[in-house]
Amino acid sequence: MAGFGITTRGTSQLLFRKGLMNNFLNAYQEYPTVASSIMRFGTTDEVEIQRARIVGPSRMFRSYEGEGPVLSKITVSDKFSAVDRTYQLGYGVTIEAREDDLYNQLNKGGTHLGHAARMTQEYLVGAFLDDSFAGTAGYVGMDGLPLLSASHPLMSSANVVSNLVAQPVALSIAGITAMLQLYRDMKDENGDPIMSVPDKLIIPNRVGMEMDAIRILRQQWELNTANNNDNPVKAVLGSRKIDIIVNPFITSTSNYWMLDSRLNDSHFLMRKGIQIRDWEDKPTQTQFVANRMRVLSYFYDWRGWVGAAPV
């Protein structure tokens, strides 16, 4: 990993030697972005996001001749706020190093810093998933709880709803079955059922977990059954497809999540897009290059997400 400080001829000697193949690894273009398939990416002109929820009556009441309507109040939630954060990176190159660079690599600041910006976005979304069970890193929603909790309160009653697998097991038919049941049990703020259906399964960068996910979600037959019983998960899903997303930017090697993209209320907003600037220190003629962006990442409503955290 590159170190901090100013690049000199002493810290990058290979660039001043003849005979190297001019084939340097400058950026990663060979794989798609993962982050934008997990959080909703967009832009904002606001320094702070403020949201609230209004909940009205759930059902109508029967009335008899001559009776007026039953009056029901409308409930407004507390205010939710999220603020943006600034991220920056830069480096400096001495004039001597630039003059003697045989491969013209030290002037490609935009390439290096562009890659760093992309990695920052990926790791921030990875941190959102890592914090989804605890909320200690600041990712809490409208109810003050982490994304995944067994006790999400409802605004209209004292009841709570869970989107956390109560007895988590490693990725398996049992684990996916428990998740699908949480989708069946999902409620709105009035406690009425929500027709929520997952379309994504997010897993760590483990080949074995990906293979298990493919077998569970794609295979016609149930795993480890002598008589090739029908796969119940695939039968329940029918023609509905769940995309498998492997995320190499999370720290857990066992947690997994399911997501209904229609209800996904997690956001990654660019307050200021990536800006790259350069300047020169006049006395030394050292060239500096830096990038900067302001982003706002948060979630508001937990609905659409379920998760399991096996020990």
- Give helix % range: 10-25%
For the report, how would you describe the main beta sheet? 5 strands, mixed
Strand order of the largest sheet: 1-7-14-13-2
Nearest-integer average pLDDT: 87
Question: How many beta-strand elements?
Answer: 15
Structure description:
This protein is of the alpha+beta class and 311 residues long. Helix content is 19%, strand content 25%. The chain has helices spanning 95-100, 109-130, 173-184, 207-218, 232-237, and strands spanning 6-7, 40-43, 48-51, 54-55, 75-76, 80-83, 85-93, 152-153, 160-161, 200-204, 243-247, 256-259, 266-281, 286-299, 305-308. The longest helix has 22 residues, at 109-130. It is flat, with a radius of gyration of 26 Å.
Précis, in short:
It is built from five helices and 15 strands.
Spell out the key features of this protein.
311 residues, alpha+beta, five-stranded mixed sheet, four-stranded mixed sheet, 15 strands
Task: Write the SSE topology.
Blueprint: E1 6-7, E2 40-43, E3 48-51, E4 54-55, E5 75-76, E6 80-83, E7 85-93, H1 95-100, H2 109-130, E8 152-153, E9 160-161, H3 173-184, E10 200-204, H4 207-218, H5 232-237, E11 243-247, E12 256-259, E13 266-281, E14 286-299, E15 305-308
Parallel strand pairs: 1-7, 2-13, 10-11
Antiparallel strand pairs: 3-6, 4-5, 7-14, 8-9, 10-12, 12-15, 13-14
